[in-house]
């Protein structure tokens, strides 16, 4: 074989191998992209896939590995009574408000056009409602689904009402501040029919998939009374990335009812996936496990 022919053969082999590698790489990229589209969540955090589950969040969001994280298991015997806190006060319209319901690929959230403010509870500033979202379990409600626990007991549903400090322009700015956020957590247990949830639950099928939105009407008063006289308070973090430790948590002590049929509406209508996914992934168990208290004080106010 002449040197020229040998060179031509080697060039052909190299080109063929390069083409095969390129095709394999391209196929791999397509598989990864398809997988992410199927799951309908961001590449670096999720609830339903091992590589991006809560135990791995700290790899992309270092704050998730810090020492004052949320949620926590509230041991009532270890709480400190503080009568100086006063009740939680929520001010705003008693009328129904226009709003938007969104599936963000991790939960469903509601934003309202009416303004509501949070005060009391020992807060030094007033806080403005940004919206509320839900965390829940699966078809076995006894397994749990809430993020916070009380004396080791988990609940099938928890609603988070997110407020930002009114001295800041908006939620985005407040998230960067040490006193930026206050969240009211309300726990739900399977029980009687809850009319306050009915309209909200009836809209879930309109936002079944990640990215879908629909208009909604909601009366916050049906979810949050003007005053809450029994709650637990502690300093913690967001329960989703970035897990920033700038949240004053106010967890209502009175557990609210939700009927089994209403709970079933939640777990049967929502998906983590984007619209059009061949095998949509049901939105289930979208809660972060409880985190160590690490010496923090949990106060309790009960009028």
From TrEMBL:
Top EC class for this record: lyase
A Pfam entry, by short name: Carb_anhydrase
Cofactor: Zn(2+)
The UniProt record lists the keyword Metal-binding: yes
UniProt feature coiled coil, ranges: none
PROSITE patterns reported in the protein's UniProt record: ALPHA_CA_1, ALPHA_CA_2
CDD domains: alpha_CA
GO molecular function ontology, one term from the record: carbonate dehydratase activity
EC annotation from Swiss-Prot or TrEMBL: 4.2.1.1
InterPro entries: CA_dom, CA_dom_sf, Carbonic_anhydrase_a-class, Carbonic_anhydrase_a-class_CS
Top-level lineage group: Eukaryota
SUPFAM superfamilies on file: Carbonic anhydrase
Reaction(s) the record says it catalyses: hydrogencarbonate + H(+) = CO2 + H2O
Family: Belongs to the alpha-carbonic anhydrase family.
PANTHER family cross-referenced by the UniProt entry: CARBONIC ANHYDRASE (PTHR18952:SF280)
Protein name: Carbonic anhydrase
Organism: Xenopus tropicalis (Western clawed frog)
């Amino acid at each position: 074989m002449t040197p020229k022919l040998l060179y031509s053969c080697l060039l052909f082999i190299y080109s063929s191998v390069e083409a095969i590698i390129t095709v394999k790489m391209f196929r791999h990229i397509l598989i990864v992209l398809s997988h992410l589209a199927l799951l309908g969540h961001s590449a670096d955090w999720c609830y339903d896939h091992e590589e991006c589950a809560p135990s791995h969040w700290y790899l992309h969001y270092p704050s998730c590995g810090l020492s004052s994280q949320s949620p926590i298991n509230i041991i009532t015997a270890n709480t400190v009574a503080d009568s100086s806190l006063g009740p939680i006060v929520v001010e705003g319209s008693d009328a129904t408000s226009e709003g938007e319901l969104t599936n963000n690929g991790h939960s469903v959230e509601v934003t309202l056009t009416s303004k509501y403010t949070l005060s009391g509870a020992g807060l030094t500033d007033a806080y403005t409602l940004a919206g509320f979202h839900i965390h829940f379990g699966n078809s076995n409600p006894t397994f749990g689904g809430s993020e916070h626990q009380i004396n080791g007991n988990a609940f099938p549903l928890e609603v988070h009402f997110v407020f930002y400090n009114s001295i800041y322009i908006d939620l985005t700015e407040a998230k960067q501040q040490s006193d930026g956020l206050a969240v009211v957590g309300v726990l739900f247990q399977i029980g009687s029919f809850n009319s306050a949830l009915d309209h909200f639950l009836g809209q879930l099928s309109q936002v079944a998939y990640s990215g879908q939105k629909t208009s909604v009407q909601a009366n916050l008063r049906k979810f949050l009374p003007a005053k809450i006289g029994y709650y637990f308070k502690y300093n913690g973090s967001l329960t989703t990335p970035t897990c920033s430790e700038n949240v004053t948590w106010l967890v209502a002590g009175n557990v609210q009812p939700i009927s089994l049929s209403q709970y079933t509406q939640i777990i049967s209508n929502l998906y983590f996936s984007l619209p059009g996914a061949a095998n949509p992934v049901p939105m289930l168990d979208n809660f972060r496990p409880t985190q160590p208290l690490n010496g923090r004080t949990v106060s309790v106010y009960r009028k």
